[in-house]
Amino acid sequence: MPDPESPTARADAPRRAFLAKVEAILGTLPVDVEVTYREVETAPESAFRWGAPPGVRGLVVRSASAVPSVGAVAQVVAANVRDEADAFDAFGGRLTRERSLAFDPFPQEGRAVYRLYLLEHPWEARGHGRWSPPARALESGDPAEVAMAVAAWAAPVAERLAPGLPNAATRVARLRRLLEARRAGLTAVEVVRDLGPAELVEAAGEPDLARVGRRLLAWHFPRDQQGRLRPRTTVALVCCRQGQRPQARQLWLCAEGPAGARDAQRIRLRLRWEHGVNQDHRWDGARHLWHSGDQGSGLDARWGVGDRSRADRSAELMAEGRFREGLELYGVELSPEADQVAQGRVPWYELRHLAGTWTSAMRSQLAGAAPWLLASTAARDARAAGRPVRLFGLGGQSIARKPGLFLAAGPDRAGRPRLEVHWSAANARLPLVAWRRPEDYELLRLGLAGEEELLAVGRAEP
User: Fold this and answer.
1) C-beta of residue 79 within 8 angstroms of C-beta of residue 71
2) What distance in Å separates the CA atoms of residue 406 and residue 392, rounded to the nearest whole number?
3) Which residues of the chain have pLDDT under 50?
4) Helix intervals (H) in 103-222
């Protein structure tokens, strides 16, 4: 801080007094912020001349709730408007172009105004830098308006409260419906062989369908909330032929559900050209779900469970929405950005309108996650890929690079597994069986079905 009696400080006193009005009002508002008066951050020359010139002092505000990686800061500077006509509409208000603002010394001739700049490191798909443009700019002669804008930025409120998760009774009721439908489906669901044209069958090498268990498919095929086979759903069972190029589609033996909700409960075996890495339901790595010759292992081995009691505790925590605790039992981290979304907030100011959409997706999906599978999958798939792998999308943005939650091997690709928010234009994702808790596991954990019944589904295949 300069000596208050120095010529520099005396010359700066009018600016300091002008900005103190904003600081005083901000101090009466229920927000946790740190306010300092010092030289403000300036834009690089290529940032379209946003912001004050170098050396100008102002209020620099940081919020206690900000995520460090976002680098969020609010800056309030004082200026005089030299040309009232040199203005444009932006950020829901009227802004004078910087070329027609006099920042230093202050005051000068012209109307005195406050200029607020909200700065953040850009989210991955933003397409612009920190200053081009800033996250928000506001110009006003009213210190209360500026203080309220800073407070709204510093205390982010979700679009709505973080949605609650189904309670234990609701979860049990849904699983009871599922179990009843599965039991009935063992005899009622028909599996039809309809592989397609002869040339497709020849290209696939005439896949052996004798090992495709009808009872296994009827039991494990994805079902809707009412227990019916999920319509318009395709399960990729096994890759029969690679494409001619690395990025080309592969020929898969698939199980297709009914075309509509009211259609007959029938599963159709067909050959389809698909990108295997883009499929939610891909069972080539979980053959016990459909292959009658892979029924020799026990349930824990199929589910990747080492310690049943630890897995049960982790599953209970995840179902209750205590994600950090549930993940921690298996050494999986939740990034600060993902943690804020799970709590009903979006750390990027420009994206706060997505809080409701993102939080609903995050909480509903993580509630069904299996932390033990995330840990083993990160060690195998995410580390092998050398980059984070998508689990699910967050929605809300119609841009090429879609937001989602990704599994990373760790910040240094050799550390603890970590769940992070990223954007990607690729559709590749981990199949659900690689990271979600199996429904058979939930039936057993909650005492709705016994081990013998679950093992008998495949062993009773003719």
Assistant:
1) no
2) 7
3) 159-160, 413
4) 143-154, 168-188, 198-203, 214-220
Per the structure block, which two tokens stand in for 240?
A: 């029969």
Phi, psi of 365 (to 5 degrees): -75, -45
Please give the Cα distance from 421 to 67 (Å, whole number). 13
Place of tokens 């309108």: 353
Residue with the two structure tokens 């100011």: 349
pLDDT of residue 27: 95
Instruction: Dump pLDDT digits (tens) for 28-65.
Output: 999 999 999 999 999 887 656 788 999 999 999 999 98
Tell me whether residue 152 is exposed, middle or buried, using C-beta atoms within 10 angstroms of its C-beta: 0 to 12, 13 to 18, 19 or more.
Answer: middle
Structure tokens at 313: 């505790």
Task: Name the domain boundary from 99, 132, 154.
Answer: 154
Quick check: is 140 in a domain? yes
Q: Is the peptide bond before 462 cis (omega within 30 degrees of 0)?
A: no
Three-class DSSP category at 325: helix
Please state, in angstroms and rounded to a whole number, the distance separating the CA atoms of residues 60 and 73.
Answer: 7
pLDDT of residue 360: 94
Other Cβ atoms within 10 Å of 84 Cβ, number: 10
Count other Cβ atoms within 10 Å, centred on residue 53.
13
How many other CB atoms are found less than 10 A from the CB of residue 256?
Answer: 20
**Nearest of 34, 37, 32 to residue 20 by alpha carbon:** 37
Within a domain: 179: no
Which pLDDT value is given to residue 410?
A: 64
Question: Structure pTM?
Answer: 0.90
Q: If residue 419 lies in a helix (H) or strand (E), which one and from where to where? A: strand 418-424
- Structural domain range at position 140: 7-154
DSSP code, position 414: S
Q: In total, how many domains does the chain have?
A: 2
Instruction: Render 53-91 in DSSP notation, one character per residue.
Output: PTT-EEEEEEETT--GGG--EEEEEEEEES-TTSEEEET
Please tell me the distance from the alpha carbon of residue 87 to that of residue 110, in angstroms, as a whole number.
14
Distance CA 426, CA 403 (A): 11
- Is 229 a member of any domain? no
Quick one: how far is CA 1 from the chain centroid? 43
pLDDT of residue 163: 74
- Which residues are 85's β-sheet partners? none
Q: Which residues, in sequence order, are bridge partners of residue 93?
A: 90
Q: Which of 154, 173, 188 is the last residue of a domain?
A: 154
* 356 within domain boundaries: yes
